[in-house]
Amino acid sequence: MAVSLWNQAGVPHKGWTEVDVVDLDEPAETCGMCRSAQVRYIHVMVHADYADALRVGVHCAERMADDYAGVRETERWMRRRTAFSVKEWKRERPSGRSFLRSRKKRATVLLEKRAGGWYVLVEETGARKPRGGRKAYPSERAARMAVYEWIYPRPRVLAGKQL
Questions:
Q1: CA–CA gap between residue 11 and residue 64 (Å, rounded)
Q2: Do 155 and 73 touch, CB atoms closer than 8 A?
Q3: I need a surface site. Which of 8, 41, 80, 125 has the fewest CB within 10 A?
Q4: For residue 143, which of 92, 105, 95, 100 has the smallest C-alpha distance?
Q5: In angstroms, what CA-CA distances link 51 with 7, 18, 48, 130, 134?
Q6: Are 148 and 85 contacting, i.e. CB atoms less than 8 angstroms apart?
Q7: What is the pLDDT of residues 54-102, one digit of tens each?
Q8: What are phi and psi for residue 155, nearest 5 degrees?
Q9: Residue 61 and residue 33: Cα distance in Å, rounded?
Q10: Structure pTM?
C-alpha cells in the first residue's frame, strides 16, 4: 500500500488551490494525497511550494484548500450535471424531439437529432420562435450537459474549461 502524503515531510497540508475537476464516470483512480480512497471526481490541486499538481478526492481537497466551500460547490455542481445528463426527458409528438421545461430560465429546451449530431433549441416563454440549433454535439448526453451549463452556470474554478 502506498504511503499517504499527509504523513510525508515537505508536502504542504494547507494553502492548495483547486484548478480543475475531472469526472471519470466511475470511481477509477486512487486519491493522490491519502492514497487510499477510490474517487470518481478528481480535484486537481496546485501549491506554490510543491512541484507537482495532485489529483485528489473531495475529502482531501477540502482539507487542502483555502476555499473549503468552493471545493464543495464544484463537487456538487459536477454531481448534479451528471444526474441531469441521464434524466428522462419527455418526447414531443409528432417530431420525436426530446424536451425539458426549465422553470429557472422560463424556457423549453428541445434536443433534435439531425445530420452532423445533436442540436439544442431554446423556446423562451413568450418568444415566437426557438433559438439556437447552430452548434452540433456528438451525442445526446453532450447536448444535455450543454443545456445544464446554460441553466446552471459553472462554478468559478470551472469557468472557461472544456469538460
A1: 11
A2: yes
A3: 8
A4: 100
A5: 17, 15, 8, 50, 43
A6: yes
A7: 999 999 999 999 888 889 888 999 898 888 878 888 887 777 778 887 7
A8: -65, 160
A9: 9
A10: 0.75
Write out the three cell numbers for 34.
Answer: 491519502
Strand partners, 80: none
Cα separation, 126 vs 6, whole angstroms: 56
Domain borders along the chain are 5-85, 88-152
Q: Is the peptide bond before 94 cis (omega within 30 degrees of 0)?
A: yes
Measured at the alpha carbon of residue 79, what is the angle toward residues 78 and 84, in degrees to the nearest 5?
95
Amino acid at 71: V
Residue matched to cell numbers 501549491: 47
27-31, 39-43, 104-108, 119-123: range with lowest mean pLDDT: 104-108
Q: Tell me the C-alpha distance between 74 and 155, whole Å.
A: 6
Alpha carbon distance 39, 60 (integer Å): 11
